[in-house]
Design brief:
single chain; 302 residues; alpha/beta; Rossmann fold; 11 helices; 38% helix; 21% strand; globular; binds S-adenosylmethionine
């Protein structure tokens, strides 16, 4: 892997450039992306009054869901590398309407201490594999937990289990300007945790006990018009910044390219007559292969 400082800097730039797309599509991400983290939420079993850290919280949807589960007596801290996403999260879920919920901008890898620690539990949806040094990131999470504190997170398995992601990139890229460099080997990226052995080594190396890595196949259901779905998926992916900076006709061509390659994920088209009460909804069915990663902070490790 190239030097750590360089990879960290590249990450920070990537997420700063990706942030406007994530902010713009935050509601879609909350609604359509929910299956990506639901198994970890179920497994975490947040209880009223608990203190929970949400790592890589993006625009805060999962932090708000956690805050609902721990109630007004609990505390949830949503932490994200990108300050503009943290700002958007705080605006979407203000403290007066979400007591006990707050957001903080920090790089989990280099955070000396996480504001609000110690936590009873940590949650993360699709972020751990994005760390330049995942052992450092997971060590910081473990240090932020109380002894016996639990972690439940999701990450992608291998890319073949989430085929629409490649389709989005291949459909959009030919129409857009240069894209950020694609990850090589173990470099941070959506599929950097594809190998469950690596995931176990990272968590164990970070000092966690009782590490579990279980496969789940989930489906994202995205209704609505193909153009909107294509735009959501382009803008939250590696082509997002190039898409935003492209001329309108190039953006339209990118959307058309993605719509074409996503056709195989389309559910039956909109009915022309009245909807069948039992018929499947029109839209997209996007399969995703994920690992549910669970672990416990041992007693006596600070
Ligand atoms: C794929 S997005 C997922 C966002 C959100 N959890 C969701 O599922 O909608 C990954 C998030 O992790 C954040 N992230 C990446 N590296 C990070 C780091 N080292 N420390 C904190 N956050 C990080 C990014 O800024 C981004 O918001």
């Amino acid at each position: 892997m190239s030097d750590l400082a360089g990879v960290r800097a590249r990450n920070a730039t990537f997420w700063a450039r990706a942030a406007p797309g994530w902010i713009r599509h935050a509601d879609r991400q909350d609604e359509y992306g929910r299956p990506l983290g639901a198994v970890a939420l179920d497994r975490l079993r947040p209880r009223p009054g608990e203190r929970i850290l949400d790592v890589g919280c993006g625009c805060g949807g999962t932090s708000a869901e956690l805050a609902g589960a721990v109630g007004p007596a609990g505390t949830v801290v949503g932490l994200d590398l990108d300050a503009s996403m943290v700002e958007a999260a705080a605006a979407r879920f203000p403290g007066d309407r979400h007591p006990g919920l707050r957001f903080t901008a920090a790089d989990i890898e280099t955070a000396e201490a996480v504001q609000g620690a110690p936590f009873d539990a940590a949650y993360s949806r699709m972020a751990l594999m994005l760390a330049a040094d995942p052992v450092a990131a997971c060590s910081a999470i473990r240090r932020a937990l109380r002894p016996g504190g639990r972690l439940a997170a999701t990450v992608f398995r291998d890319g073949a289990a989430t085929p629409w992601m490649h389709a989005v990139l291949l459909g959009a890229a030919p129409h857009l300007g240069p894209l950020p460099p694609m990850p090589v080997g173990d470099e941070p990226g959506p599929f950097a945790f594809a190998d469950p052995g690596r995931v176990t080594r990272v968590l164990t190396g970070a000092g966690f006990d009782a590490v579990g890595v279980e496969p789940y196949d989930v489906v994202l259901r995205a209704p609505g018009d193909p153009g909107a779905v294509a735009e959501w998926l382009i803008e939250i992916g590696p082509a997002g910044a190039a898409y935003r900076e492209a001329a309108p006709e190039r953006r339209a061509a990118a959307r058309a390219g993605v719509i074409k390659l996503l056709a195989r994920f389309r559910e039956p088209p909109e009915p022309t007559g009245p909807p069948e009460p039992t018929g499947p909804a029109a839209g997209y069915r996007l399969p995703a292969g994920i690992w549910l990663v669970t672990a416990v902070a041992p007693a006596g490790t600070a």
